[in-house]
Amino acid sequence: MALTPEDVVNKRFQPTKFREGYDQDEVDDFLDEVVVELRRLNQENEELKQRLVGSDSRIAELQRNAASEQTQAIAAPAPVVVAPQPVVSSVDETESTNNLLQLARRLHEEHVREGVEKRDALIAEGHATAARVVAEAEAKQRAQITALESERTGIERQIEELRSFERDYRAKLKSYIETHLRDLDSTGVGTNGFKTGGNPAVSGQFATVAAGDDRQTPPTFQSFGG
Prior knowledge:
- The chain is an all-alpha fold.
- It is built from 4 helices and 2 strands; from the N terminus they run H-H-H-E-E-H.
- Among the domains are: 5-11 and 23-67, no CATH class; 103-174.
- The termini are far apart.
- The relative contact order is 0.03.
């Protein structure tokens, strides 16, 4: 059984009675020194074992390398076969790229088609609105022109009526004045010192004035038309 420092530390001795022995303190101090030395020796032993294991591993590796080099030197060089590169990933990448391009092209065509449809709809709506506005403006213009023509016709008719009334009035007034002027020119002097003529109405009027009637009746004539 190998002696370890723990065995030395844990060792217990039976005390003796009635006979000579060693000083216990000195024995303990010496055992402590022995424990320290044993621990150092054990540590060195472990380090040496580890170095030995490492050396053995290195020697075995060198031997394997030497044997491998000898085998490669003796054996003929085998032809190098280049393994074909896998093309699955390249094909997949190309197919994915084509799919993305087709999707982008389809989206572009859809956007262009929607834009053309919206443009055509806006143009058609603009044309319809313009035609409606023009039709409403033309209808309003025709209605205004019709109203103005009707109003002008009414005004022209009133003007013509006023002109006709003016002509009739002037003609009747002229005839009235001329008639009275002729009557005045053709009257003679009556029994009362006034001239009397062929117009009985005028002679009667002057006779009434001469007789002393304070009321003077104005001459009457037919009213003007219009």
